[in-house]
Structure formats: structure tokens, C-alpha cells
Amino acid sequence: MDAVHWIEMSAGKAALAIFVNALAGKVYMSSTRASFQIRESLSSKGLMKAAGKMMKDEETVVASKAQLNNSEYSGLLCAALCFIHISQQGDEHVCGPDFKCDGTAAGLSGMTSQIELASGLIVLGSILHLWGQILWGPFPFQTLGGLPRYVGMFLLVPVLQVATMRNVKQFDPSYQAKFETVTVPQ
Fold first, then answer.
1. Where in 37-179 does DSSP place strands (E)?
2. What is the pLDDT of residues 48-67, one digit of tens each?
3. What is the pTM of this model?
4. Closest Cα partner for 9 from 146, 129, 114, 107?
5. Is the bond preceding 158 in cis, omega lying within 30 degrees of 0?
6. Which residues face 171 on adjacent strands?
7. How far apart are CA 54 and CA 68, in angstroms?
8. Can you give the pLDDT at residue 71?
9. What is the rounded CA–CA span in Å between residue 29 and residue 2?
10. Quick one: DSSP state of residue 106?
11. How would residue 103 be classed by pLDDT, with cut points 50, 70 and 90?
């Protein structure tokens, strides 16, 4: 693992990086569209022609597709990484006052290196996929960005399984007692 130590990061930092990358991609595309429309409206040719020209421009089409692909993955990845980050905390605020957490932070303590590697690969893949295509074109960045992102996602599958199955180790009986004392009028 020492050879890839530089790529490892926490799930929380990875979620933040994915969010910022998606935001930067959206701002880039919005500014590209706005500048194109402003130039065309100033030359009094109308916005419809500007939109048509913009979508015929190969660089804009490639950037738009890359940004759309990034947007499709960003929500899923942010949610999964934030869930893992919260699950790693393992305190009363995560589990709630009516549940007893085990002391091992949802059973993820032995999976830290896998989480960090997966998080780093996902961030690397997302950045390469989006900005590689925007700056240099689709080849080879669709593959160079997509592959680490997929590997990272596959590495997160067992982590998510452990986090969802073992987050709450023991149900607090006093919580159940609260519902047993409630009587429903007939």
C-alpha cells in the first residue's frame, strides 16, 4: 500500500473534493455558455443562433458531455462518501440517543486503508475524467478517468455493506418500551 499512499484520503475529504469538482465543472460550463451568448447577442445575431453554434463547436460538445457525466456520478459519490464518513464517527450523534453504538465505528475500523484508497481513486478519476476531457479532449481521458472511479466505487461496495449492516450493533430496549406504553384509543 505504500506505493499508492499519496492517493489515499478520508471519505469526508473525498466527498468535499467531489462536490468542489462538480461545482467547478458547472461554473465552467455556465460561463462558457454565457460568454458565447453574450458575444452573439452583441453581434446582434440572436441567442438562438448562438446556442446552435455553440452546440456545433466540438470543444463545447466534449466539455458538455464530460460535465454531464461528472454530474451523474457526483451526487451518488458524495452521498456514499458522506455516509461512510459519518459511519466512521461511531458516536451517539451518529447512532442517535436510542441506540447503542459499538465502539468500532460501525465496524469500519479495519477498513480504513480500503476507504482511503477508494476515496482517493474516486477523486482522481473524477478530476481526470472531467478536466482531462475539457482541456485535452476525450481520448484517453474517458478511460483514464473512468477506470479509477470504477475501481474506487467497487472498493466501496463492501464498505457500504458493513456500514449499513453493522452501524447499530444493539437496539436499546428502553426505546421499545416507549412504544409499548402507548395506548391507542378505540
1. 99-100, 170-171
2. 565 556 566 788 889 999 99
3. 0.76
4. 114
5. no
6. 99
7. 16
8. 94
9. 38
10. T
11. very low
Question: Which cell goes with 159?
Answer: 464498505
Is residue 96 left, alpha or beta, with left meaning phi > 0 and alpha meaning psi from -120 to 50? Answer: left
Terminus-to-terminus CA distance in the chain, angstroms? 64
pLDDT averaged over the chain?
80
* Alpha carbon distance 7, 157 (integer Å): 19
Q: Which residues pair with 100 in a beta bridge?
A: 170
Confirm if 71 and 22 have CB atoms less than 8 A apart. Answer: yes
- The three three-digit cell numbers of residue 13, written as one number: 475529504
> For residue range 119-173, what is the model confidence (pLDDT) as tens digits?
999 999 999 999 999 999 999 999 999 999 999 999 999 999 988 875 444 555 5
Phi-psi region of 137 (alpha: psi -120 to 50; beta: other; left: phi over 0): left
Q: What is the mean pLDDT of residues 25-34?
A: 88
Please state, in angstroms and rounded to a whole number, the distance separating the CA atoms of residues 140 and 52.
28
Q: Where are the domains of the chain?
A: 8-180
Q: Which are the contacts of 49, defined by CB distance < 8 A and separation ≥ 6?
A: 40
Measure Cα distances from 142 to 121, 126, 160, 185 in Å. 15, 10, 26, 62
The number of angstroms, rounded, from the C-alpha of 58 to the middle of its chain's C-alpha atoms is: 28
